[in-house]
Amino acid sequence: MEVAVVLLFSAFLCLLLHRLLRRRRPSHLPLPPGPRGFPLFGVLPLLNPDILGSLFRLSKRYGPLMYLKLGNRGTLVVSSPAAARAIFTTADAHFANRPPLPTASMVTYERQDIIFGTYGPRWKLLRKLCVTHMLGARPLADSAPIRREEVGILLRSLHDSCDAPVVVPDALMSTVWNIMGRVLLSKRVYEDPPEFKVKMRQVLAGNGFFSVMDLVPVMIWLDLQGFHKEVRDVHLQFDAMISKMLADHAASAKEREGRPDFIDLVMQNRTGSDGETVSDVNIKGLILDMFTAGTDPAKVVTEWALAEMVSNPEIMKRAQSEIDQVVGKGRRLEEADLPSLPYLQAICKEAFRKFPPAPVGLPHCTFEACEVEGYYIPADTQLFVNLWGMGRDPDVWEEPMEFRPERFLSDGGRGAENNFELIPFGGGRRVCVGKQSGLLLVQYMLGSLVHSFDWRLPAGEKKADMEEKFLFSLSKAVPLTVLLSPRLAPSAYM
Ligand code: HEM
């Protein structure tokens, strides 16, 4: 009863404030079309649990630039390649910020990281450090031996457990986290510290950076389920773990003399040419970004690609035979082989189209009111690009629900990328800073796995379960479990 009274009273207060504070729109231009929604909750009550599908269906009714209220946040939803082009090119400067979502702020040390960092000198310096010392072409080539060793460990362990069921996402997760741990901190992290995988899974599973409550401030205030307390607890535990890892890293600096890792290089270059500096908290935020956004999407899309391939044996066979022709069966696939494998690359593109790991990208936000394609966009409007919907739009793709890598064979997908039809890494100033690295990792892991093993589903199943779960990323609801048999000479697994 008390809760109901508080809710009603808060709703009344918010409505009153909304009316009082509502300024007249300083433009003769219309807002983009969109559904009207309800006070406080906006269109949330109109969306069914299939949020991505609901948004896409609404955009088919209202158009590819659709304005609506998600909770009480003004939101622009982009759902066509032409609209994405307009946003990420001519209007990009207006949308270069991120919205201050309360859950994300709590997790990212009050937005001291790159992903949710305010657009400005600090964010630029953090991005520059990443490109110069980890994700640009040269540092990426320098870290090739780490990827080679870690993928080798994965192949050996799968080889040793052949004929026992393998839970693919678990195997992939250990590989991507260990690669990232070694690049960042010279440390294989999956089992050391022992709580690492549990804590990181909690960070990713606790809805990661988003909560519906962020959209309706009165719900945060009430927080009846204690969701925010839970997120804060997980964050504090993550912080304690990372602080300890950084202290151990500093204590062992001498052991790495002459071969610094990424965190060593960041520590040595904390001040940018404009005098901007990176704090200890920024470094923790950076580590959080890398162990989440820098690992999970590659794992997720590789699992989806494998699920499609075990369900479509002709695609699997064609990929294996392409790799056999280039690599043979006497050795493992190397990163240097990838440019000679157009079909494998097309499979990765097709997986990114159908299963974009960040299905609505990451939210952008306008600094001030602006005009896009003849529409008025208010200040503080958050932006989502429905990559998932665009990848399944029959107006853009022929038979979009078919997994058909051939559609990218003629030009390697360049046309689709240039036309903003295939943009799994987002676009504009906030485009994914790990785009090259993510693409390389997916191609290398996927190619190595399909070359090294024959794949089958347990208990004679013909098709993998393809149900989707949308949390921080577009995960498989049922983890892919397979049986493997080796297909290379035994020495290739040594
Ligand atoms: C398969 C791989 C990946 C996919 C599909 C992916 C996708 C994305 C998307 C859609 C965004 C948002 C872009 C936007 O706001 O328009 C993003 C941002 C970001 N990604 Fe990735 N990503 C991948 C791999 C990586 C890797 C390997 C790293 C780092 C090692 C990384 C680090 C980041 C960071 C730091 C941002 C925030 C950029 C900013 O706000 O300035 N990602 N990613």
TrEMBL record:
Cofactor(s) for this UniProt protein: heme
Provenance organism: Gloriosa superba (Glory lily)
Keyword Cell cycle: no
Annotated keywords: Cholesterol metabolism, Heme, Iron, Lipid biosynthesis, Lipid metabolism, Metal-binding, Monooxygenase, NADP, Oxidoreductase, Steroid biosynthesis, Steroid metabolism, Sterol metabolism
Residue positions binding heme: 432
Listed GO MF terms: heme binding; iron ion binding; monooxygenase activity; oxidoreductase activity, acting on paired donors, with incorporation or reduction of molecular oxygen
A Pfam family reported for this protein in Swiss-Prot or TrEMBL: p450
Source superkingdom: Eukaryota
Name this protein carries in UniProt: Cytochrome P450 family 75 subfamily A polypeptide 110
Family per record: Belongs to the cytochrome P450 family.
Keyword field contains NADP: yes
GO term, biological process aspect, one: steroid biosynthetic process
Pathway annotation from the record: Steroid metabolism; cholesterol metabolism
